[in-house]
Amino acid sequence: MFKKIIALCAALLLALGAAAPALAEEAAAPPLSAGAACLMDTSTGQILYEKNMDAQLPPASITKIMTALLGVENSSWEDTVTMTDASVFSVPRSASHLALTPGEQLTMEQALMGAMLPSANDAANGIAETVGGTIENFVEMMNARAAELGARSTHFVNANGLDDAAHLTTARDMALITRAALQNEAFVRVFSTAEYVIPPTNKQAEARNIGASNKMMFDFTKYYYPGIIGGKSGYTTEAGHTLVSAAQRDGRTLISVVLAEPKNAAMYEDSVALLDYGFNAFTSVTLTPQELGAEIEAADAALATEEPVTLLLAAGTGVDSLQKSYQVEKSDRYGMTVRVGLSLPEGSSGQYSEVASAELRYVVPLAAASAGAGAAPEKGMDWKAAGLTALKWLGVAAGAALAIFVCLLLYVRLRYDIRRLMRRYRRRHGGAPRRMQAPRQAPRRPDRQPRPRAVGEGQGLSSAQRPLRNSARYN
């Protein structure tokens, strides 16, 4: 019995030893035959793997991801798409098409399905003319939307992806465009459809049965991928084989992009390998703001950021392997904003070295901020605003001083003119002006003296005894 137990343990150890290299190989970054590739996590935008992802290459029909995105953003399902000579005859007969004819009418939904599933170039042109008025205007819309999404190395020339020397993109840019498109429910409806029927039209009596060109969406093919959301493939002589795929597993959604594939089978094999690598070899790690800013000296400022940062690390890569970089993006007396970059040493693993970035906001308490308002200027003080304020007050003070000076000059001049006029008047009239002289008084009349009377005249006599004056007048 004891020998059997020992033999069983030995067999188990041998099995584990044989499985360990296999597990390690599964966790390693896959070798790819693609000329360029990118693997992106949609929730965070973190790039998990890259191969020449910023090399500009022709995209072929994965261009139609942008065409469909603009179609659903700028129209409704029931809008009418009327085919024109330009939209029909600009497509070579050797390229993929729906055999649409000038004057034929489809709904926008039917045109989108035709452009995305069998990659019909004439349907893509019809969408472009309906949304943009002309194909040229629509191409301008495509380039503007790409720049808005951060796809700055992309330049579109047409809406279908046919070869043109100036029609270029990158694996990173196509991942960015697809990530934005997956946030639109109408686009996902088109992107995830495997089969569709276009009913008879005004020019076509029979229905058209169409199916997706991406073999990863059909469970009867060897390239079927469980959890696949959708995808778009492409091929031209210049571009080779290209494929964009999106899949979901355990609550995570990944986007894989491969460009310049030498064979049709290779683009599926590389896409499956990339998605498996992303789902199997990475674990989710959450870092708190306090952990991110552990090395930051913020003096009296308090950390105001509360949202943690979630990132993905490849198997065998620990949090202690992360390198942090700090950059102050904004600083004032109320606090500062710091950009924290997380990266891995080059060549430390198959994972892309730039892992994540986050913003940390530090704020100064109100009391400290108020106290600091009257203190010496801080390093982050807005000197331009302070200088403008000082110049404004200097201008006000100079204006006030000038006004006072002018008033004094006017006062002195007025006094001088008044005195000169007075002197001129005295010389001409020999005295001060009348209005300047004291008022003249009337001569005083001397008091009238009583007439002297003769002694004894009328004295001692009564009124009856006094002689009447001028009695002769009455006789």
UniProtKB/TrEMBL annotation:
Keyword 4Fe-4S attributed: no
Sorted UniProt keywords: Carboxypeptidase, Cell shape, Cell wall biogenesis/degradation, Hydrolase, Membrane, Peptidoglycan synthesis, Protease, Signal, Transmembrane, Transmembrane helix
Single biological process term from Gene Ontology: proteolysis
Positions of region (Disordered): 429-475
Residues holding substrate: 232
Family label: Belongs to the peptidase S11 family.
Pfam families: Peptidase_S11
Molecular function as annotated in GO: serine-type D-Ala-D-Ala carboxypeptidase activity
UniProt key word Repeat: no
Leader sequence segment: 1-24
Record-annotated active site: 61 (acyl-ester intermediate), 64 (acyl-ester intermediate), 119
Name of the molecule in the record: D-alanyl-D-alanine carboxypeptidase
Residue spans crossing the bilayer: 393-414
Domain of life from the UniProt record: Bacteria
Residue stretches making up the Peptidase S11 D-alanyl-D-alanine carboxypeptidase A N-terminal domain: 26-260
